[in-house]
Hints:
The protein is mostly beta strands. It has 3 helices and 18 strands. It is 11% helix and 35% strand.
Amino acid sequence: MLTRAATASxxxxxxxxxxxxPLALADDGPVVGGHCEGESSWVTVCxxxxxxxxxxxxxxxxxxxxxxxxxxxxxxxxVVERLDPQPPASDPVWKGHKSADGAIYARxxxxxxxxxxxxxxxxxxxxWAAEAPAVNVDPEQLAQEAVDRMLLAGPDIANPTPTGRxxxxxPMWMWVNEGPTTYGPNKASASLAGVTVTxxxxxxxxxxxMGDGSAVTCQGPGTKYAAAYGKQDSPTCGHTYKRTSPxxxxxxxTVIATATWTVDWQVNGGGETGQFTEVRRxxxxxxxxxxxxxx
Length: 295
């Protein structure tokens, strides 16, 4: 049984693996883990993996001061394929059926196939069926598999900086550095069972929580400040503090920037399209003081 299962895992790896071509540096390994479940005994595309975040969000993970903060359940992909060669008629897996009545199939999820490739004793689900199970690929799930490899992160806050000097009543200009993983655009494709989906992700807004009870929503990356602008307000993204930062908590305000990534996806060659969003967050500490007049 182990030999047949091992053969099934090897056979299905080429069909199962999601092919990704990210624009930015990304993890080459597919997302693994969980189990298959569905309406029949030969699930073709599995869905729920308890205890793991969804593709509509990634595991909370810090990268510097940036973090991914969604918590929806992770979706898991599986496929079914006819075993070739078929087991001998004497194999118990036939359960009394004959080859003329149907065939032996194997169901493998990403976790099963990759676990076996890594040397683990993982056994795919091998079973008899009268007809070939239909392949049912969820294109949005493929789009999410592509997004997972983009390594989307929270905003790369350029200003305010912890070392900056910020004063009560003086306009603060807020802006972020634009990169493939922190602002976009970021593009990747994923394939399964002959279906290829291309996804493109870009930040469409950043919500700033300033730490003093104020919030600001900016539709773009913000405008970089230059001395020539003097004391005028930022034309795109800014805030003016009306009181100094608190004496406690290190004497600083915690500024939180939450980016909303909009992901547009399309089945290659025309056909179904869709859109969903991802949320990523970063934070920064800033001190706000008062101008001291020396006499």
